Amino acid sequence: MKKRVVVSGGGVVSALGNEWVDILTSLKAGKNCVRYMEEWDKYDRMNTRLAAPVNFTPPNFPRKKIRGMGRVALMAIVSADNAMQAAGLVDSLELSAGRCGVAYGSSTGNINALLDFYNMLVSNDLKSMNATTYIKSMPQTCAANIELFYGLTGRLITTNTACTSGSQAIGFAYEMIQNDLQDVMIAGGAEELSAADAAVFDTLFAASAKNDTPWASPAAYDKHRDGLVVGEGAATLILEDYEHAKQRGAHVYAEVVGFGTNTDGTHLTQPNRTTMAEAMRIALKDADLAPESIDYINTHGTATIAGDIAESNATADIFKRPVPVSTIKNYTGHTLGACGALEAWISIMMMHEKWFAPNINLRELDPECGVLDYITGEGRKLECEYIMSNNFAFGGINTSLIFKKI
Questions:
Q1: Residue 300 catalytic?
Q2: What pTM did the predictor assign?
């Protein structure tokens, strides 16, 4: 028999704040965290100057524990430690028994460490490199550093799948526990801000260039949107076998009841409406739910024309009704590897608040978008039993998660 899987803790590092009370205040104030990046003015031929950075101070952890961490891993470990504290697991003797694992991802490792490799190749000198350069730059830096930080000996899954890194991590962690391969999984994603991230989308004409009005972008689903804005941050969920959590008296935030993931098989960067819809269908089947059971959907909502149109129509194809939807990216920018976990955690907490954030910057709906209930104004009071959180990534990777209120 499949195990029930619950969320017993969560922690974030975000532009909206790190504590839920601060995040909720920012959401209710309609706070857009995007600013003009003057430090990017030096980049010729890059149109965008917008980003949503996090005010992050590295933690005062023992140097031995964090010496292999760049900014991305440091944000990951802070969010993970907050999540472990919330779950009451930091000092647990069970952590080293092989039944606690990690599923974590980011798009890349630490940018500064990658630059050290570049400097070696152009200068023919290793002076910029040291014993931790690779550890900081490797794709699995977040997952490996979390495992080492807590002395874990369980499963390790690294999900370096761009914008689905965090959501795939949660989904794969859910499957680990569901199939009795682990009792606890530390799952999430992180991303550090880099001008290179913005340049990726700029070269694809997918980055917002509303440099004079940073507060007005991104504007997912709006007729006058002009692209996404990159952000940064980290988010971690503690997933746990329900009986295990109940036995130790843990607080349960939600139950993970459905996970769907697939690939487009058609294009590396162009979204596919059909396979997006199929990922949602897989999650609903996994949860044994009809579409009518879902009360709210946190959408990927990147504010790119192709992405918004494909995703909203795929959602409408499955639900065939104006289901309430909103995106967190209009507040935080696109946090890439972090977004799947950050948006899942915020959605769970909004479910407990019985209030869901509006789509700020949505003034005039793009008529090409699907027929859905796009939450606007001051947000929406909703009593929800089931919510869905969706993410889609370059590489044609689609994910859908379903959470149940407990």
A1: yes
A2: 0.97
